[in-house]
Amino acid sequence: MKFDWYQATIEDQPLVVLDQVRKLGHEVREADAAARRWRYSQGWAIGHRDLGVVAQVFAGGNGKYPHALATSDAAPAFASLVRDCWPERHLVTRMDAAEDFNEHGAYNRLRRVCRRVAKESRIKFSQIKDDLDARAGRTQYLGSPSSDYRARLYEKGWQEVGKLVALYETKGYKVPASSVVTIKNQETGEDIKPEDWTRLELQVRPRQEEGRRAAAAVTAEQAWGFTEWSHRLAVEALELDLQRMSIRTKKCNADEEAMRWMCQQYGKLMIRRYNDLGDWASVGLEIGHLVKEQRRY
């Protein structure tokens, strides 16, 4: 199991974030056009001499903090870096947890499981395929496009063949998909028949801050436990021994928001008082005493 997409807002200065993320590649170039698509004013793309663009960092215009992302084969290393550098200071806006299968007939076998889960969970079950070209690859979706959680089952092998054919075309060569007998899995190094390489992945896009912070701390496997239907799919299709996770998305009232702001602003002071006094109850009593004392005047 791995992250195939990892995207987060990072609570740090843009140049500090860029200085860390640039370690994933060999060059940094401006990517302001890409930044504007995400409603930021400035962007940078980190390039790797062998892998191409491995990460992007955006800043300005869309909030206080910078935003960064990596996709596909570059996502695992990027996720590890972000979690190492900012373990409690990044909020995940999207992450895809993916599992690959090298198995003849895996797509059809897993699609039956997906269909059963979708039917019993009453979620959307739509498929994209080309009836005239099997090598175009099929994609099965569970959940709606606007949902916080959506699963995809697709023929990864044929997707990779399509990328390879397109690459050859840019160099002036026309290579039919039917001529590709095997394709290399860059992660494992194994050669796989395109029709045997299937991927099942869950797209997670928490909307609330609490969910985004929770997502920043879970493994790719644990992400499947965020909803009842994805948890069941992971158990039945991926055979994961997985506990259900819980993300609270309760809407805060004005007083709760003010309390959150106060804790964010004075959290370090609160922790120092906790260390001095020994427990949070004592911290609360001290705050209560100070509030009463000040209100006498």
Structure notes:
The structure is a single chain. The protein is α+β, with helices and mostly antiparallel strands and 297 residues long. The protein has 3 domains: 1-87; 96-251, no CATH class; 254-295, no CATH class. It has helices spanning 14-21, 32-37, 75-85, 106-121, 156-170, 209-215, 220-223, 228-237, 254-277, 280-295, and strands at 2-10, 27-30, 42-48, 52-59, 67-71, 90-102, 125-128, 139-142, 149-154, 183-184, 191-192, 197-204. The strands form 2 sheets. A 10-stranded antiparallel sheet has the order 2-3-4-5-1-6-12-9-8-7, with helices on both faces. A two-stranded antiparallel ribbon has the order 10-11. Helix 4 packs antiparallel against helix 8. The model has no long low-confidence stretch (mean pLDDT 90).
Key terms for this structure?
10-stranded antiparallel β-sheet; alpha+beta; 297 residues; 3 domains
Please describe the topology of this protein:
Layout: E1 2-10, H1 14-21, E2 27-30, H2 32-37, E3 42-48, E4 52-59, E5 67-71, H3 75-85, E6 90-102, H4 106-121, E7 125-128, E8 139-142, E9 149-154, H5 156-170, E10 183-184, E11 191-192, E12 197-204, H6 209-215, H7 220-223, H8 228-237, H9 254-277, H10 280-295
Antiparallel strand pairs: 1-5, 1-6, 2-3, 3-4, 4-5, 6-12, 7-8, 8-9, 9-12, 10-11
How far is the N terminus from the C terminus? Answer: 60 Å
- What is the molecular shape? globular
**Which strand order do you get reading across the main beta sheet?**
2-3-4-5-1-6-12-9-8-7
Average pLDDT figure = 90
Tally of helical runs: 10
Secondary-structure class:
alpha+beta
Oligomer: single chain
Number of domains: 3
If you compute it from the alpha carbons, what radius of gyration comes out, rounded to the nearest whole angstrom?
Answer: 23 Å
Strand-residue fraction? 15-25%
Question: Share of helix among residues?
Answer: 25-40%
How many strand elements?
Answer: 12
Uncertain ranges? none
Largest sheet: 10 strands, antiparallel
Q: What is the chain-wise order of helices and strands?
A: EHEHEEEHEHEEEHEEEHHHHH
